[in-house]
Design a protein that fits this description.
The protein is mostly helical. It has helices at 2-7, 23-35, 47-58, 70-81, and strands at residues 61-62, 68-69.
């Protein structure tokens, strides 16, 4: 792929119907389902509710981040860029 050649990054595409190959994606889908159950009609969901859910998920402490939350780690990394 052109992307792989240009940036030197290997790209991996999971096989269809293989959720075990997309662990992080499936985990975050599970978190979203706490706020928006399956068959939720997003025409009836306000932007405010979506932003609330996003903020709640990003504020959860995560073991993989040494019990920091995603917002903290993102801001920490962003500060190191400048």
């Amino acid at each position: 792929m052109q992307f792989e050649a240009e940036y030197g990054i290997n790209v991996y595409f999971a096989h269809p119907y293989s959720p075990h190959e997309r662990g992080c994606n499936e985990y975050h889908n599970h978190l979203l389902r706490e706020y928006f159950p399956k068959k939720t009609n997003f025409k009836n969901v306000t932007a405010k509710k979506i932003l609330y859910a996003i903020n709640e998920i990003n504020e959860r402490p995560r073991k993989t981040l040494k019990w920091k939350n995603a917002n903290f780690k993102f801001n920490q990394l962003a500060e190191n860029l400048y």
